Amino acid sequence: MSGESFNWHDFLGRWQEEWVPRADEDEERDAEGDGGRSAFRLGRPGAQEPAIAAAEERLGRRLPTSYREFLAVSDGWHVEQTAGVYQLGGVADIGWFRDPYDMTPLYEENLGDHPREEDVLLAGMWRRALRLETDSDMSYALLDPGDSDRDGEWALYVYKGWSGELPDRYPSFRAYMEAMYRAFHADRAERPDFVNATTRAQDAQVEEARLLALRGRHEEALPLVEEALSFGRPHSRVLLNQLRHLSAPRSSRDYGFLVADPRYLPELLPTAATTPARGEWRLGGDDHWLGMMTARGVPRETAEAVLGTMRDGTHRYAPPGPWGRAVSEAREAARWGATDAAWRILRDALPRWEAPGPSLIAPIGLLADPVLGPLITPERGREILATPRDGEAGPAPDPVPDLDPPGLAWLTEPAPNRRSPEGYRCVWVEGTDPARLPALIGEEGAELSAPADPREASWRAPGPHDREGVELWEDRAVVAVGRTAEAWAFAFDGCSHHLNNLCSSPARAASTSGRAVVVWRDPRHSATGGHPAAFHLSVAEHGEELYAFTVRGTEIKRSGMIPEALDPARLFRPEDGDPEGEQDGEPDGEQDGELRVLEALHTELGLSLPRFALTRGRLHTFTTRSWTRAPREGEGFAYVSIGGHRR
User: Fold this and answer.
1) DSSP secondary structure string, 297-361?
2) How many angstroms separate the CA atoms of 551 and 545, rounded?
3) Contact between residue 231 and residue 186 where contact means Cβ atoms under 8 Å apart
4) pLDDT for residue 210 is more than 60
């Protein structure tokens, strides 16, 4: 209904022809046995030009074109807006509103020193607007001559006095009437007998959008589905939610009763459980969510089981066929940190995804998988939508670039809040299965957890004094486990404690079957008295330490035959220890030395770490043995807990 010309005769005639009462009005308007279709008139005969001109003379303004043309076709209209305006008057009824409730001062006092243009217009609207409605629920239809466009159309505001909300704004009277026509359709969309040319056209549009989406043309599908949803057409919301969900994967989307359909339940029920599983469901807790799922037809025990697996991280998205085999292969790669490789596996298999039924246009269940879900960034979600699938043809989209940088230099980058990175420590073991690391360096009985957020696993770890049998001097780390692209197994702690003189490198224990490397970076900002930051490296092979060094400020302690490429005297230059070189938000001298040694470790030993998996993904974790030894006679140690972090 957009375009340069608009035929009010056709538009209003179609509205009248399609009119049926809402379901709750059937008994009231069924006097002629046809649901009230022929008994109720929405409009009135059009006003003659002299009557319109007389009204304009009385008002002192020429009416905007779309409203003027409307009056010439129908001198008023029954809009039947739910809980708002019911009847628009004709030329004899309209008049200036003149702000009888003194709204102008209320809106003006909230403008502030630098108000937006739209807020200024709204504040002035109350005294200059033309009032159109003659029957309403404490609501007003106000046409504002002060808020006009280049075509001379006046904005129309609908203010619901009982709501406490800002008025709804429509750019013109025509836009308001088109919106009311769509609302009329949406109110009656559930009636089985509400079938007409408009409903058939909108349903055909939904089907066209579905096929466009499956062909990867989601941007063309989106406006079609949005328009169909404004008419309340069945299935439009489900399609739109999928398009939006994949563009913003962390958002919560409601798939209604479709969640109970056996064809879609494996995809949609885990997705629906994501929010309560994260503890973000605030509408009555688990019982309310479970009750809502039960009301939609999901057996309560099924909903409870899915919520449990989502909460403990054991849920697995397991679709059938070639796509399912690719999902399994990608999960195996991602759970050890190879998230870019996992995404490439999924990308290559996407054309082979098959919809379990016509209501699904994308693998939504992927978002609920605890290992694969975090991989679906908004950019990758849009790549999914742009990929032809389910047997449909179309051009493949440009691939989204990989997200992991090579090497280790990213460890020196500031966090998103612009603060310097926390301390970190890592053990690499060459050519070893990551699943063996708990046996090499884990505490007694250590086992790999289900894949979890590495940061949360470390933050939530109990302090030594909270665990029976653990000495206060012990420093047991909760580490994330994975495998680098160069086939080194790694165990990484991104929230380490301060490196002190009791440090006991796990390199020897880790190296029983091959070479092991340990790096420990002291937290950059110390909370224990301003000690200089420290950096430790140790390398061992077959249970024997080959070389090691620790740099603290300008002091260097070293042992063994350190290769020239890793010589701390070359990498950590004297000027690097100058504390006056540090400025907030900029690399300081210490960080320059750290960066050089991390680059050397990547170049010389092939060490790397997957940034995405460690900062946004899910990895197995376990608790290590202590990274510090027991104090010897005459030695002491300190234990401090600040803000929930152990020091």
Assistant:
1) T--HHHHHHHHHHHHHT------SHHHHHHHHHHHHHHTTT-HHHHHHHHHHHGGG---SSTT--
2) 18
3) yes
4) yes
Angle 297-300-304 (CA atoms, 0-180°, nearest 5)? 130
Residue carrying the six token digits 């949803």: 229
Quick one: which of 531, 529, 533 has its CA closest to 421?
Answer: 533
pLDDT at 492 over 90: yes
626 has which bridge partners?
Answer: 476
State the Cα–Cα distance between residues 391 and 251, nearest whole angstrom: 28
Q: Name the helix (H) or strand (E) containing 88.
A: strand 85-88
Query: Could you read off the pLDDT of 575-588 as tens digits, one per residue?
Result: 555 444 444 443 45
Angle between helices 285-295 and 265-277 in degrees, nearest 10:
160
Close Cβ partners of 3 (under 8 Å, ≥ 6 residues apart): none
Place of tokens 């909760």: 478
What is each CA distance from 287 to 126, 282, 291, in whole angstroms?
46, 11, 6
Please list, in sequence order, all residues whose beta carbon lies within 8 angstroms of the beta carbon of residue 626, skipping any fewer than 6 positions away: 471, 473, 474, 475, 476, 504
396: phi then psi, degrees, rounded to nearest 5: -75, 145
For residues 50-69, average pLDDT: 97
pLDDT tens-digit map of 281-308: 666 678 899 999 999 999 999 999 999 9
**d(Cα 629, Cα 473) in Å, to the nearest integer?**
8
Nearest to 87 by CA among 29, 42, 154: 42
* CA proximity to 523, closest of 502, 494, 501: 494
CA proximity to 453, closest of 273, 621, 310:
621
More confident residue, 528 or 122: 122
What's the whole-number average pLDDT of the chain?
A: 88
For the chain, the distance separating the N- and C-terminal CA atoms, rounded to the nearest angstrom, is: 67
3 state SS of 272: helix
CB 625 within 8 A of CB 510: no
Mapped onto helix, strand or coil, the DSSP state of residue 225 is helix
| Rounded CA separation 267/263 (Å) | 8
Packed helices 197-214 and 236-247: angle between N→C axes, nearest 10 degrees: 30
* Mean pLDDT for the stretch of residues 116-139: 94
Name the burial class of residue 74, with classes exposed (0-12), middle (13-18) and buried (19+) by CB atoms within 10 angstroms of its CB.
Answer: buried
Structure tokens belonging to residue 115: 């108000």
pLDDT of residue 647 exceeding 50, the answer is: no
User: Nearest-CA neighbor of 58 among 46, 67, 69, 50?
Assistant: 50
- Phi, psi at 535, each rounded to 5°: -140, 130
Tokens of 587: 């690399």
User: Is residue 498 within 8 Å of 528, Cβ to Cβ?
Assistant: yes
Tell me the C-alpha distance between 479 and 443, whole Å.
12
CB neighbour class for 3 (10 Å; exposed up to 12, middle 13-18, buried from 19): exposed
| Over residues 226-245, mean pLDDT | 95
Task: In whole angstroms, give the CA distance from residue 28 to residue 436.
Answer: 75
Rounded CA separation 408/603 (Å):
10
Which residue in 52, 102, 110 sits closest to 76, CA to CA? 52
Residue with tokens 């043995």: 625
Beta-bridge partner residues of 628: 503
Residue with tokens 């494996």: 266
For 27-36, 191-200, 541-550, 599-608, which range has the lowest pLDDT when averaged over its residues?
27-36
